[in-house]
Amino acid sequence: MSCIQEHEFTVGYLFCGAGVGAYGADCAQVEMDGHRATVRNVGGIDFEQERCDTFTKLTGAKSLCADIGRMRPRELRAFFGERAPYFMKWSPPCKGASRLTSKERAATKKYQDMNRLAVKAARKVLAAWQGDERPVMVVIENVPAYRHRCPENLAEVLRLGRRAGYEVSVVEHDLGEEAGLAQRRQRLTICWRDAKRCPVPVAMPSKKRLRGVGEVLGPLPFPDDPRAGKHHRLPKIEWLNAVRLALVPPGGDWRDLPPRGGVVAWLEARGLWPAGVDTGPFRDLVEEQLGTPVRQGQRRREVHRRHPVQGWAEPAPTVAGPGGAGLCAVEDPRGLESLAYGKDGRFTNQYRVGDWDSAATCVTGVTSMTAGMPSAADPRSLDALGLGHAPRRGAEGVTAWDAPAPTVRGVARHDNGGAAVADPRALEGVALTHARGERFADQYRVQDWLAPGKTVTGATDVQAGAPVVADARPLDALALRADGRAGTCGVIAWEKPAPTVIGMPYVSGGSSPVSVADPRLDGIAMGTDNPLRHRNKYAVTGWGSPSGTVTAASRPGSGAPSVADQRVLELVGLGQTATGAGTYAGRPGLFGVLNERDPAPTVSGSATVSSSNTPAALADSRAAVALDALGVGPTCRNGFYGVLEWDSPARTVTGSLQVDNGSAAIADPRPAPRLVISIHLALALLAEGWEPPKGALAPAILSPLSGCWHRPLTTLDLAVLQGLPPVVDGQPLEFVSSSDARVRSMVGDGIPAGGALVWQEEQLLAALKSKLGHGWSLVSDFWFRPGFEGYAA
Questions:
Q1: CA distance 260 to 256
Q2: Pairwise pLDDT comparison (569 vs 273), residue with the higher score
Q3: Which of 97, 345, 348, 734 has its CA 20 to 30 A from that of 318?
Q4: Are 92 and 118 in contact (CB under 8 A)?
């Protein structure tokens, strides 16, 4: 039995969004003096249905799709209850106050109405509940520029809180430092605290080390891995932008590209300029699109930040929604072997070299290093491997020409004994030439055209002495027999008389033309009225017509007869082809299937399924497991052509295992490997106007600056940077929306889950202390100061 006493505090959310912050805050719990405090989410309100549905999916709490600016106080009371939640939190739209929005656009009515939502929400919360029914603590979060762009709204929110009896505080802080995130997140927080019901002030979270994005993104699979879900698809970008990202240094953006007018020279100096595409238009494209937009004499800050590439080891800037100049791409340094062949156990044995002192991996039957044959980094000296070291003396040994040979053994090879010799004889004597005396002088011999021939032997292979001659005659004379055989390849005119007919006429080898220029095209074609044509070629006789003369032809192309048989195919199969055959019972057992519970008829000596008078098949109802045991089920004969499930154990691995004699195939759910290319090839593809085919994985371009893949961040990357887990309830993280742009907006608009967690822990600790009667607390570095120095109740 636990000795800890539980305390639960409720929390409600206005402008709840997709619940990114609520997901983190709901996980908060604190303990002190045998007491534990937790929070219970009682619901959230937002004006977009997709965000409300995602809020419910992530947090499990109810949601309401409504415009808070138009809601009535009684509607808030109906949703949250007669007593307000202990904590109420909201993060109203910040686009009108953000510096990413120009002052001109922020001054329009649309954005001014957004800025007023914080005031409207404050008025309605105060009107919905009175006295002790009101929330004990109200937390309002926005961008720091809200203080400067909306000073009237901020002042009114503070004034409303003080009039209602709350202690009010405003603070600017960095969520990234407070929660140890992999991004910087500067925020402005306004808090109302009911000092009577929560006298203990809320302390600021202690600062932590900012993490690099690689610490957070490193455990994720590479983009487009289906195991990571639909939000981990690589954003589709033009090939030009993919090349541009590869040329942006980590931590920089397009302003850090080589200067325009010198991009080609910059590439040529590094050996990156592709050959064969050096055209004027392509040079102009490279200079214009792959050069920095900062003109000479212009300050860098005067050009908008675009195409930034985040360094892997550095914290990211604020994660925002789509558009703008926020987080775009990342320098991904993870191993190329993982990128090209997959990760997490996929093809990791290819070209693997094991450490000499480490345990070996599983021994398989492969014999090629490209397929996983093991290799080891052997530290032993070459002498110890066989060069002069017992017991393999003589391995790789070479015997001197004038020294006696070692013992000749039945398995003597160069790698296990002295089976090689230092032969001092002249190389020209060893080569296959004519200067070798009596040694196979006719091998590969080429006879001069004007010299007399050698003795004619029976050899038919040039490497065994068959004669070869350097034929000096022109090739056209060889082909047309221009040396006296005038009829070779000849064609006789249709109206001319034929020459003498000889006994061996050939088109290319005779002395007389044996071809004719036949002008009868219509008569040659089949299906015309030429009386001399081959009428029976591919002829089909009607079922009711008399047949032609029966000849010995066996092929339809040579005149063998065919017939348009109109009989039903089933009757042909059953042998019922004669007139009236349909009324004949025929062979009662033909294609028969026995019931397994009925006795079998007489067993004949030639019982077959398709040609006997006895049924030779059985309706066997035994389960597939029993069939497997008999060797005639889905895995019959040890599973030949069997396909293993990915999450099932394999069967026994035999030395001769192949797909046709066992279960040697597997349903592999892993994605196809992504092609990795150099910037050199990427530029060549850009010159050709190439774009990645639809549905195919875009190649990963290795940056010549970092040797890494500068790739766009996926939606899942951004969500994980915001503190959401990649897997929720055993399934990949998934937002309730079919639009990736809207999902990115939900992610960027949310409070980082880790930041919301540390906030909630400090607020929860103050609430628990207040409930336990800790009325005095030293004012140190607090969020919400009581208004005077020293000790405060």
A1: 11
A2: 273
A3: 734
A4: yes
Cβ-proximal residues to 181 (8 Å cutoff; 6+ apart), any chain: 175, 210, 211, 315, 721, 723, 752, 754, 755
Query: What confidence score (pLDDT) does residue 579 get?
Result: 57
Nearest to 587 by CA among 573, 605, 598: 573
User: How many whole angstroms separate alpha carbon 725 and alpha carbon 732?
Assistant: 9
Beta-strand runs (E) in 587-671:
593-595, 617-619, 643-644, 665-666
Residues 6 or more apart whose CB falls under 8 angstroms from that of 455 comprise: none
Contacts of 320 (CB under 8 A, 6+ apart): 100, 326, 327, 748
The pair of structure tokens assigned to 657 is 């295992």
Sign of CA dihedral 681, 682, 688, 691: positive
- In this predicted model, what pLDDT tens digit does every residue of 426-455 receive, in sequence order? 554 444 444 445 556 677 778 787 788 777
What would the pLDDT profile of 615-653 be if each residue is shown by its tens digit?
A: 778 777 765 556 555 554 554 455 555 676 666 676 556
Q: List, in sequence order, the alpha helices (H) in 271-399.
A: 280-289, 336-341
- List own/partner pairs for 73-79 with CB under 8 A and 24 or more apart: 73/124, 73/125, 73/127, 73/128, 74/128, 76/45, 76/124, 76/125, 76/128, 77/128, 77/129, 79/43, 79/45
The residue type at 330 = V
Establish whether the linkage from the previous residue to 391 is cis, with ω within 30° of 0.
Answer: yes
Q: What is the pLDDT of residues 710-747, one digit of tens each?
A: 888 899 998 998 999 999 989 999 999 889 889 988 99
Confidence of residue 378 (pLDDT cuts 50, 70, 90): confident
Contact (CB, 8 A) for 146 and 96 = no
Per-residue pLDDT, 168: 95
Verdict on whether the full-model pTM lies above 0.90 = no
